[in-house]
Design goal:
The longest helix has 21 residues, at about 455-475. Among the domains are: about 5-195, Beta-galactosidase, Chain A, domain 5; about 220-250 and about 520-688, no CATH class. By secondary structure, the protein is of the alpha+beta class. Strand 7 and strand 8 form a beta hairpin. It is globular and about 85 Å long. Helix 4 (about 275-285) runs parallel beside helix 7 (about 345-360) and helix 14 packs parallel to helix 18.
Length: about 700
């Protein structure tokens, strides 16, 4: 997304160039998107037939930006006699205030033109460069330019209008502008989206002619920020990263139709501005001490959409939690299975983990009781449907061979699961972290059954199953000659023996025997996995290692945050602080906004984190990463009606305080002073 300007509100977003122009192709994620469809693919401003040059772009809020432009002057700037300001805010479409200023002492007449068009591409068509199958139409009616697309009953429309007198044609809007000396001309432009037969247009969230767009969104953001815990620290970059995380989390809030106006986190811009089971759960866990309402909505919505039948096209089973929900054309015509699609092997046990962690923080037993049936169904899925190899482990293999996902763990790219020598295993695959999630789900489910559902027999059964799983796992997945846990088991039950960051998720889940934990931590912090910025997804020396390969050597901030949490669980709080320091240092290079992933190069080689070329930004679980790292550094853990604080700060932080932390205890403060004493080797590599 380099060089592009993006504004968003939930799953509606606008991506343009630095001039504010949109000139999209079928493979280009620029335009106005809403509910997985592109409603505007051309939006080009010209003055007297010439494109404009950008002077600067102001990132006012996540939902609003302002472009300062001058007429074309070639490569050398010449004092412009006119300038242009475009102020744009996203809503039900977007609103744009276009202002032209005359800086001359003479009047001027200008021909102002906005070319507009839409290809109405489904987001999958943009991503996969596919062609449309429906029909387009354009008309001028009642002072609006109407762009339309239909394919049977599937209809998408875009309505464009202006407050200033304009000549509308089927390709855009034209204005004849007269400016007196030092004069100013302004028009408000509304681009409104509509879906369904008949195209009933929703009312924009702004009022026409308002000089200040989206006042309700500004108030909402102010309330969101003021409700979050207040951070005090002597590290200025951490303050900026914390605020950026809260603002981006607000931007990524998405309210599905079944949520009753409440929000959960959408996964990330541009490809994943929708509901993802795994991503929403992980992000809700990260943000729980800060914004617990996201977790409540995630539990409710994912529970409402829980699988209820066996459907091979959607990889659905009874009790299974969805992977992805889409609303575009290809889903509507069942050319993609995302209505919703259930092809994730981890979201279901993680759902139970979130339900328990939410109650531990909030004390909200009402919600836990309300979703008891869904939690029991999720626990049943682990044993009844997920054990594809009949060996007591969760494994996955898609049943939809055409459009389903091959890898149904969080490392879901085609080559993410490999042997040490680089070979790719067959299916089914039982990756190691899935077993950790299953263990954690059973242990947490047992607590809920005993304390809240009042079913001690079920609690005993779950605890016995968890103990058996832990015993078998530590035997079957342990790589003796490497002293780490294998990435998984293949379709013959043999170890997929690569060394990967998944070991850190095992610590987080609690499935690792204490006798093995120190050796696992040593690998995670060793030079093959720890780059100085964070933990690589795949260790150096493995057959498929690539520092800029999507899941085979890059550093994923979210991954590192859960690894840090896992290290804390087993008492390695100094090591967790080192990981926090590296990731937070990287955040400073990204202006406080951690990307989805960045290069796994050694810190001493690059001196800065290398950007991964197609990383989503903002992305929900990267946005949540600084929040979870704050929790791990402060050592925040709920115990009954109390919050335990056991701090271990990163080396460059002398003071850290988080004030008004919400929970079952009301609101409390957590303070920490002093720096962690770090082993010399780790200190050298973290500073390199």
């Amino acid at each position: 997304m380099n060089g592009l300007v993006q504004i968003l509100d939930g799953n509606t977003f606008v991506v343009s160039d630095a001039r504010g122009d949109i000139e999209a192709s079928l493979t280009d994620p620029t335009g106005l998107f809403s509910f997985d469809s592109r409603f505007l693919s051309t939006w080009i401003l010209t003055v007297d037939g010439e494109r404009l040059n950008p002077l600067s772009v102001d990132d006012l809020q996540y939902f609003e930006s302002r472009f300062f432009l001058v007429p074309g002057t070639g490569t050398v700037y010449v004092d412009a006699k006119t300038s242009v300001i475009r102020r744009r805010a996203v809503g039900d479409g977007f609103h744009e205030e276009l202002t032209i200023l005359n800086h001359d002492d003479k009047p001027v007449d200008l021909k102002v033109r906005l070319d507009a068009a839409s290809d109405f591409a489904d987001l999958f068509e943009v991503k996969d460069a596919l062609e449309k199958k429906g029909h387009y139409s354009t008309e001028v009616r009642e002072g609006r330019l109407l762009l339309s697309y239909d394919r049977g009953s599937y209809v998408r429309q875009t309505a464009i209008s202006a407050t200033a007198p304009a000549k509308l044609d089927k390709k855009g809007l034209s204005f004849a502008v007269h400016l007196e000396p030092q004069g100013e001309w302004t028009t408000d432009l509304d681009v409104v989206t509509a879906s369904g037969a008949g195209g009933t247009y929703t009312r924009p969230k702004y009022q026409r002619g308002q000089r200040k767009a989206q006042p309700n969104m500004e108030r909402g953001l102010d309330h969101w920020l003021s409700a979050a815990p207040r951070l005090e620290t002597d590290l200025d970059s951490l303050k900026a990263t914390y605020r950026r995380s809260l603002v981006d989390l607000a931007a990524l809030r998405f309210s599905p139709p079944v949520a009753g106006g409440r929000s959960l986190p959408a996964a990330g811009l541009p490809w994943f501005m929708t509901m993802f089971g795994r991503d929403s759960i992980f992000t809700s866990l990260q943000a729980l001490p800060f914004t617990p309402e996201l977790a409540a909505t995630t539990i409710q919505v994912l529970g409402d959409w829980q699988g209820s039948r066996v459907d091979d096209f959607r990889d659905e089973d009874p009790g299974r939690i969805l992977h992805e929900m889409r609303y575009g054309e290809m889903t509507a015509f069942e050319e993609r299975p995302h209505s919703p699609y259930y092809g994730a092997a981890d979201a279901t046990p993680l759902y139970v983990v979130l339900l328990d962690e939410y109650e531990r923080w909030t004390g909200d037993r009402r919600l836990v009781r309300a979703f008891e049936r869904e939690a029991r169904a999720a626990l049943a899925w682990i044993d009844d449907y997920a054990d594809l190899m009949d060996n007591g482990y969760i494994s996955y293999q898609r049943r939809n061979e055409d459009t389903g996902l091959e890898n149904q763990c969080w490392k879901d790219s085609w080559d993410s699961i490999s042997y040490r020598d680089g070979r790719i295993p067959g299916f089914p695959r039982a990756t190691c972290e899935l077993q950790g999630y299953a263990y954690d789900a059973k242990m947490r489910g047992a607590r809920l059954a005993r304390d809240i559902w009042k079913d001690p027999a079920f609690a005993d059964e779950l605890e016995q199953q968890a103990a058996d799983l832990k015993r078998r796992f530590n035997r079957d997945f342990w790589v003796e000659d490497g002293e780490y846990f294998a990435l998984g088991l293949d379709n013959e039950g043999k170890q997929i023996d690569a060394l990967a960051s998944n070991n850190g998720h095992l610590l987080w889940s609690g499935i690792v025997d204490k006798s093995k934990a120190k050796r696992v931590a040593r690998h995670l912090m060793g030079p093959r996995l720890f780059s100085g910025w964070g933990v690589r997804t795949l260790a150096e020396g493995q057959g498929r290692y690539n520092p800029i390969g999507y899941h085979v050597g890059t550093v994923w901030p979210f991954d590192c945050s859960f690894i840090a949490w896992g290290l804390r669980r087993y008492g390695f709080k100094d090591e967790a602080a080192v990981i926090a320091a590296g990731i937070l240092d990287a955040a400073e290079f990204f202006d406080g906004r951690l990307p989805e992933a960045f290069g796994g190069y050694e810190r001493g080689v690059t001196k800065y984190p290398v950007q991964y070329p197609t990383a989503c930004s903002p992305q929900a679980w990267s946005t949540g990463t600084p929040l979870l790292l704050l929790r791990t550094m402060l050592g925040l853990e709920p115990q009954g009606d109390h919050l335990i604080v056991d701090p271990a700060l990163a080396e460059n932080i002398g003071l850290l305080a988080l004030l008004d932390i919400p929970g079952r205890w009301g609101r409390v403060d957590a303070f920490a002073r002093g720096r962690v004493e770090v082993a010399p080797e780790l200190r050298r590599r973290a500073r390199a």
